[in-house]
Amino acid sequence: MLIKRNLQPILEKWLFKGKILIMYGARQVGKTTLLKEILKKHTNGDGYFDCEIISVRRALEKQDPAVLKNFLGNHKIIALDEAQKVLNIGLSLKLLIDTYPDLQIIATGSSSFDLANKINEPLTGRALEFPLFPLSLDELSQVYRRYEVDSQLPFFLTFGMYPGIIKAGQNGARVLLDNLSGQYLYKDVLEFENLKRSTLLLNLLQLLALQIGNEVSINELAVTLQCGRDTVWRYLDLLEKSFVIFRLRAFSRNLRKEIGKKQKIYFYDLGIRNSLINQYNSLELRNDVGALWENFCVVERMKHLQNIERSAGLYFWRTHDQKEVDYLEEYNGKLEGFEFKWNKDSFQPPKDFLSYPNSSVSLVNKHNYQEFLM
What we know:
Elements: H1 7-12, E1 20-24, H2 31-42, E2 48-50, H3 54-60, H4 65-72, E3 77-81, H5 89-99, E4 104-109, H6 112-119, E5 127-131, H7 137-140, H8 146-159, H9 163-189, H10 198-209, H11 218-225, H12 229-241, E6 245-250, E7 263-267, H13 270-276, H14 289-307, E8 313-318, E9 324-331, E10 334-340, H15 351-354, E11 359-364, H16 369-373
Parallel strand pairs: 1-4, 1-5, 2-3, 3-4, 6-8, 10-11
Antiparallel strand pairs: 6-7, 8-9, 9-10
């Protein structure tokens, strides 16, 4: 059964409104499938071009709108998959949209860093960008009843939410994940600027995998890896823009008490994280379930916020004397905090945080998470 992606109706709302639609997401996350579903629904299914094919790349590098249109044909929607592979793609897209304003173009890229660099200047004001994440609990509710989602939680925390991994089940998930994490590391990230230090990158990822849910010190990472701070920052930036990791900043309005310059780093997919440290044991045998649960809840909440089209400020909160709130959202003048505990049924919210106007803190555990994430 094909699982309909929540991003599809969001994209469809912007069709034929004079904007090029850019969809970002890691490899194997489902970009191609979603593109083809949109084409099938709104056209006869034609208009798809794979920019990893050399002949397609070369044709799209022609800086002549008539030549470009002749190659693309008379489709009302043009879908360009992995568009970052095309030299000067931003200029080609600008020529097309300026010359043929009724043409709808949807482009995808497996890295916001690479594609954005090529389109931002030429397409200023002409493009809208949307991320596509691994499958969400919202989307899986199409095929699982709520009690079945509960029973699948250990699988999601161990093997992640990639479409191919979900379909493979436990027997094939480990092999596919190890292969996928290799593609992450070497095919996309290292190609950006001909980065050669693959060992350094892998060591950095493994360190990050062991620190999810904790504050990350750039200085400590640099010392451990025996490299400069600038190198660590650069690699973190590449990994974030390749949809491997994302950062959560500290929330602070009272600098005397609160940590204001720290960050926590999470993985977009826990299967990738577990593959990096070769950790697939059952949850009962693991000492990192709390960290897995926190990462899972944060990333699933991000997917849910995208689905309901809510734009909120996302943070964590901590004081120098170790009072903390795992995750909070600043939205419409409210501060909603959330504490993630796999097993606990109660906790005491920090009074210092609750001194903020319109603030609250809720517990999210394995018994009530569906209200928060679905």
